[in-house]
Amino acid sequence: MSSLAFAPVSGRRRRTDKIARGMVALLTGVALVPLVLILYYLVKQGIGAISLDFFTTDPTGSFLGDPGGIKSAIVGTVLMVALATAVAVPVGVGVAIWLVEFGRASKLAHAVRYFIDVMTGVPSIVFGLFVYITLVIGNVGGSSFAAWKGATAVALLMLPIVTRSAEVVLLLVPNALREAAYALGAPRWKVVFRIVLPTALPGIVTGVLLAIARAAGETAPLLFTAAAVNATAFNYNDSMNSLPMLIFKNVGQAQDRLVTIAWGAALTLVAMILMLTLLARLIQRRSRLS
Amino acid sequence: MEAGTLTPAGERRSALHRSPAARLPDRILKWGLTALSVGVIVLIAYFFVRLIVESRPVFQQVGVVNYLFSADWVPSKELYGALPLLAGTLITSAIALLLGIPVAVAAALFVTELAPRRVRGPLTVVVDLLAAVPSVVYGLWGFFFLIPKLQPAERWFADTFSFIPFIGGTVTGPNYFVAGLILAIMILPIASAISREVISTVPGEHKEAALALGATRWEMIRMAVLPYARGGIAGGAMLGLGRAIGETIAVTLVIGNAPVIGGSIFQQGYTLAAVIANEFGEAASNELHKAALIGAGLVLFVLTLCVNGVARAFVVRAERGTRAADQPAAGMAT
After folding, report:
1. Do A73 and A60 touch, CB atoms closer than 8 A?
2. For chain B, what is the radius of gyration of the CA atoms?
3. A257, part of any domain
4. What is the pLDDT of residues B297-306, one digit of tens each?
5. B297 → closest Cβ in A45, A126, A248
6. Cα(B223)–Cα(B210) distance, integer angstroms
7. Could you give the CA distance from residue B101 to residue B192 in angstroms, rounded to a whole number?
8. A102 pLDDT higher than 80
9. Nearest CA in chain B to A188
């Protein structure tokens, strides 16, 4: 009887186990295929477009002649994402601090969390529509399409990502740290700014970098808020070009040289975003929390 | 520290006392942050109201039911029936779930349960990197690589399996299937990340118990891991669905943008998000057209709201379920 306890697994069960594990491994392999294909294609098609001129000249907009470079798109993307970050990060982190330090489990805090979740789910094109309705139609600020309106749409998209990630990290700050500071007589604002925020900083930075990476690649919110122009613009009240918009515009062109520009711009954009993502992971690994 | 300073009876001021001026920064911080948080709620509410107000002309002219269920979208004739768009959104999202979720769950299972420890980290990073590729790049890749490369395979599939409904028939370059495939790739990282998180919360005792009873690795996964993680995986899938419904640019480039309901999954169509991206530029002068597109945005908004609500309910129930499972249960597996 006792020898039965270690009776060999029947052949059928062993085969099922092998097949099922093989399937899981195979599907995992399938999951890796798209990334490899995309990166391979991106480098293969995009590398040819890249040169020094590619980064230092504006697109010309000419269909048959020299298509120019992507300078205005890079400048526009950096400027708009910078403005969006400058708006979304203080607000997002502020809301997260309120949720963790003040709101906690109150009804209002639940409502705020719910609405932040709603924001996370809103499609980016709908944010674009909203900004169009509220800011572009009324020519707010004296211009219809403007970079700051595009940046607003992008900031709306970033806000829930920043808040959610910051909230998670702030919750990880040990309560003993707060209590120690209070016991030493520190006022609340000092505890927040001198104890809680510095402790959580690496985690917050990680979340912010991931939000920026997401925002830099978004086209939909910029379509009818910042529009697209060829020349480099530094004024937030003008239309601004951006990398995603440039790619989107050039894909539809039946002109190989314009398409090559799109591939080059895509390679540049993905390289920028991958660097941000990897930087975020590096900071996350160095962080003492989590 | 003298205990005497704490007693109010002493003539010296309590060490805990603060002048009103010193308490001011605390108040400013508290109420400032509260105002900020309430501001977020107000903003979203205002957002919703504005969408309703701006899309009202089309609902008044066409009627809500007609708008949602009539199949003619011809802006030049002032016909706004959003059914083809709604159908396109649902068809592509369904394809994305069917293709993407099994792969996402398999990748999560492999990373958490089967893979050697050394490759777990790198595998996780690689799957997560899919999230770093912008949607316009997916569109670019789908347009120039996926559509031409897939067409022979699609044609073969459509001919061989034409007896299955919605498969046979003509095959166009851009179609529902390509769009669904791209969406499947795009929802892979989020669905996989959530599955991974849920699966890693399965208590080691459950798994060890299954193995100790003589279960093979797969039987352990099927009997101990999957039932425990089911709710969370469903929640992750719903969040992926929310993503897929709202995805715009990648889909716009590979679905063909024809406002018809294709007869099979290999024919072209349109989605709610794509129609907004394509037609909004030219609609600025036509009030009704603009309202119809904002209406499409409203439908999209409500759709994602519902899907995300269901996803949350799933996740919450999964959490409650796991708490119940922690209690000694009578029977573990059926």
Report:
1. no
2. 27
3. yes
4. 999 999 988 9
5. A126
6. 8
7. 8
8. yes
9. B26
- Comparing alpha-carbon positions, the chain B residue that sits nearest to A256 is B144
Please answer yes or no on whether A17 and B36 come within 8 Å at the CB atom. no
Question: Looking at residue B11, what is its pLDDT?
Answer: 53
Helix (H) or strand (E) holding B80: strand B79-80
Tell me what ipTM this predicted complex has: 0.89
- Closest in B54, B109, B247 to A24, CB measured: B109
The reported pLDDT for the residue numbered A1 is 44
Q: Do A108 and B37 touch (CB under 8 A)?
A: yes
Q: Is residue B24 part of a domain?
A: no
Q: Residue B206's Cα: distance from chain center in Å?
A: 30
**Between A243-251 and A71-97, two packed helices, what is the crossing angle to 10 degrees?**
130
Give the tokens for residue A35: 């990334």
CB-CB: which of B44, B51, B219 is closest to A118?
B44
Number of structural domains found in chain B: 1
For chain A, give the percent of residues with pLDDT over 90: 57
CATH code of the domain covering residue B119: 1.10.3720.10
Please report whether residue B167 resides in a domain. Answer: yes
SS3 A139: coil
Give me the residues of B, 143-172, that contact A with CB < 8 A.
Answer: 143-145
Instruction: Please give the pLDDT value at position B332.
Output: 38
Chain B, 267 to 296: residues with Cβ < 8 Å from chain A are 273, 276-277, 280-281, 293-294
Q: How confident is the model at residue A242 (pLDDT cuts 50, 70, 90)?
A: very high
Is B125 an 8 Å CB contact of chain A?
A: yes
User: Please, which residues bridge with residue A68 across strands?
Assistant: A59
User: How much is the pTM?
Assistant: 0.89
Q: Cα(A109)–Cα(A67) distance, rounded to whole angstroms?
A: 52
Write the residue in B34, B102, B143 that is nearest to A27 by C-beta. Answer: B102
To test the contact with chain A by mutation, choose from B119, B182, B217, B218 the residue with the greatest count of A C-beta atoms within 10 A, namely B218
Q: pLDDT at position B1, please? A: 42
Q: Considering all CA atoms of chain B, what is the largest pairwise distance in Å, rounded to the nearest integer? A: 97
CATH code of the domain in which A244 resides: 1.10.3720.10
* pLDDT average per 10 residues of sequence, chain B (334 residues): 46 68 87 93 92 91 88 87 93 95 95 91 88 93 93 90 83 92 94 89 92 92 91 88 91 91 89 91 83 92 88 74 49 36
* Orientation angle between helical segments B83-109 and B176-200, nearest 10 degrees: 40
Which of the residues A2, A13, A35 would you substitute to probe the B interface, choosing the one with the greatest number of B C-beta atoms within 10 Å? A35
Q: For B248, which of A125, A217, A263 is closest by C-beta distance?
A: A125
Give the total number of structural domains in chain A: 1
Report the chain A residue with the minimal C-alpha distance to residue B45: A115
Contacts 24+ apart (CB under 8 A), B62-71: B62/B292, B67/B292, B67/B295, B68/B299, B71/B260, B71/B261
